[in-house]
Specification:
475 residues, alpha/beta, 45% helix, globular, binds flavin-adenine dinucleotide
Length: 475
């Protein structure tokens, strides 16, 4: 069917490469109206009291929308930007341009589905259709050996089944042209208009990477990581690192906003294997992308059950509420240096390593038994790479309410010594402990008063005493 005009509603797919929504609209219509909607609900307060979108992610999103607009302008097109509920804005835009249909990405988590349903209903009332496409995973759900509703709830058998039976589809090319007539574009809302302090954000010199939003920045990082820095060669050995840009790919913020397609990354891994080397490390980056897929499909299967205190397994655990303890955790003041360093990195930069995330989540949920959902909600607010399925799925996994029934408690002290043996990471984020000999950096409470005086660190004054005795917690 040929349509005259199609609205393309960009959601978490802020790119032109491998974008099935855009490709399908281009195949069907002769004129495209690209739209991005800043939804006030995305900037509201969560039920746990945190801003749903923190300032750093809001900035990354603005940059990504700006970049999308610039790329579209390069193709003689435009990006219409609006502020409002999608179910109000999209019918209005569709009417304004007399569009035949609206095309968009479909997403698996409940709130995103709810928004999609509201848009579909509002368009139907106008006699228009919403055409959706699944565009954000490595494997397409239609190709899975088992339908999403019946997939295994445990990662390993699911992955083995998938790897043995299917291949990711090839990424779709970017279009050369996006035909659009003159469009009423509007300004991209400022941070102040989105409810944030407008003062410049600044960048912490200790940040692992300068994350700039947008498709070009994401593709540049992919090329830098894989080809220029040759990091894929040893990813499996470095991926548990804590310091610097290259221990892991740092592609997550672009993946979360859809500035990068996982199939594009997979295609680069494939090319690297053909042109340079194929080893455990090249396999492992695809393995991590499969984890990402797993949580997306798990949300398609279980939906809102992921947000229950007992999670998808309805586990019977008494979760505690303790505002003071939570605030110490969130502000990096627990007195356990490895936890505090990671939380301070998150607060200062919007990023934390996977190793750090596992440990701080386990500390909150397993050592303190504080409601794991408050931690997940705090991460939702702070992370630049926040993705509802990856975040809540991983939190539930660590808290024992998600996709694995084994005990997921991390021994934080053991982990600290193993992954930060010289205490370099901890002292980077806790300068008050700088100068302590390595044997005390991870366990400053082992210093007696005389040793504290010798090293100029007074516990309880320069740095907090630990809020939980970890040795007791492990018992
Ligand atoms: C408590 C907790 C919360 C998390 N919240 C998020 C989140 O909101 N958004 C997010 O993208 N990741 C989340 N992760 C997963 C993981 O920590 C990050 O994806 C990773 O640290 C991002 O850095 P990277 O891009 O350098 O990762 P790499 O090691 O280079 O991995 C490449 C990509 O694989 C995917 N990936 C890797 N590990 C995981 C995983 N365990 N689960 C799902 N996908 C994975 C990511 O898309 C990542 O960008 C969370 C993990 C934990 C334990």
């Amino acid at each position: 069917m040929t349509e005259d005009t199609a609205v393309v509603w960009f959601r978490s797919d802020l790119r032109l490469h491998d974008n099935a929504t855009l490709t399908r609209a281009l195949e069907s219509a002769t004129r495209i109206v690209p739209v991005f909607v800043f939804d006030p609900d995305a900037f509201a307060t969560t039920t746990f009291g945190f801003p749903k979108t923190g300032r750093r992610r809001a900035q990354f999103l603005r940059e990504s929308v700006q970049a999308l607009r610039a790329t579209l302008r390069g193709l003689d097109s435009e990006l219409v930007v609006r502020y409002g509920r999608p179910s109000t804005v999209l019918p209005a835009v569709a009417s304004e341009y007399d569009a035949d249909a609206v095309y968009s990405q479909t997403l698996p988590a409940p709130e995103e589905r709810h928004v999609e349903t509201a848009v579909r209903t509002a368009l139907r009332d106008q006699g228009r259709a919403l055409q959706t496409a699944w565009t954000h995973t490595l494997y397409h759900p239609a190709d899975l050996p088992t339908p999403v509703q019946n997939i295994d709830d445990t990662f390993t058998p699911w992955r083995q089944d998938v790897e043995a039976t299917i291949e990711p589809r090839e990424p779709l090319p970017s279009p050369n042209k996006v035909p659009s007539s003159t469009l009423d574009v509007s300004e991209i809302p400022t941070l102040a208009a989105l409810g944030f302090d407008d003062a410049p954000l600044g960048r912490d010199q200790r940040a692992v990477y300068a994350f700039d939003g947008g498709e070009t920045a994401g593709l540049d990082r992919l090329a830098e990581y894989v080809w220029d820095r040759d990091c894929l060669r040893e990813y499996k050995e470095t991926r548990n690192g804590l310091l610097g840009a290259d221990y892991s790919s740092k592609l997550s913020p672009w993946l979360a906003h859809g500035c990068l397609s996982p199939r594009q990354i997979y295609a680069e891994i494939d090319r690297y294997e053909r042109e340079r080397v194929e080893n455990d490390s090249t396999y492992w980056l695809g393995f991590e992308l499969a984890w990402r897929d797993f949580f997306q499909f798990q949300f398609a299967k279980h939906g809102a059950a992921f947000f229950r205190p007992g999670g998808i397994r309805d586990r019977d655990v008494e979760w505690h509420t303790d505002e003071d303890a939570f605030s110490r955790w969130a502000n990096g003041q627990t007195g356990v240096p490895f936890v505090d360093a990671n939380m301070r990195e998150l607060n200062a930069t919007g990023y934390m390593s996977n190793r750090g995330r596992q440990n701080v989540a386990s500390f909150l949920a397993n050592d303190r038994r504080l409601d794991w959902r408050t931690g997940a909600s705090y991460f939702e607010s702070r992370l630049i790479d926040y993705d509802v399925c990856s975040n809540w799925g991983n939190w539930a996994y660590v808290a024992g309410t998600g996709n694995d029934s084994r005990d997921k408690r991390f021994d934080v002290l053991w982990q600290a010594h193993r992954y930060d043996p010289a205490g370099e990471y901890v002292t980077q984020w806790l300068p008050e402990l700088d100068g302590l000999p390595p044997e005390y950096v991870h366990e400053p409470w082992r210093m007696d008063t005389q040793t504290q005086r010798t090293h100029g660190v007074e516990l309880g004054s320069d740095y907090p005493r630990p809020m939980v005795a970890l040795e007791d917690a492990s018992e």
